[in-house]
Specification:
mainly beta, 6 strands, globular
Length: 91
């Protein structure tokens, strides 16, 4: 479902996601707090969170994204994430 979104022609903010680095990795954290690569999943709210950092210390920027899942024709589909917050690098 999330991999399908990343591979799709319209991945939104995930267009530059390095999928090849994470394909084959399993989900970690168990049912209470599952995660996969930089994604964390919130099963009760049918959402996922993703953060991305740019730059090198001490000038690091951080973008936080949140997306959702919908049940469509008996299959869970990941929706493109939206930017939730941005922390810009100090000058």
């Amino acid at each position: 479902m999330l991999i399908d979104l990343i591979r799709s022609p319209e991945p939104g903010e995930l267009k530059d996601f390095p999928l090849e680095r994470f394909v084959g990795d399993g989900v970690e954290g168990g049912a209470g707090s599952p995660s996969w690569g930089p994604f964390t999943f919130h099963l009760k709210t049918q959402e996922y969170a993703y953060s991305r950092t740019f730059g090198r210390p001490p000038r690091v920027c951080r973008w936080e994204y949140r997306g959702g899942f919908e049940l469509r024709t008996g299959r869970w589909v990941a929706l493109p994430p939206r930017v939730e917050s941005q922390a810009l690098c100090p000058d």
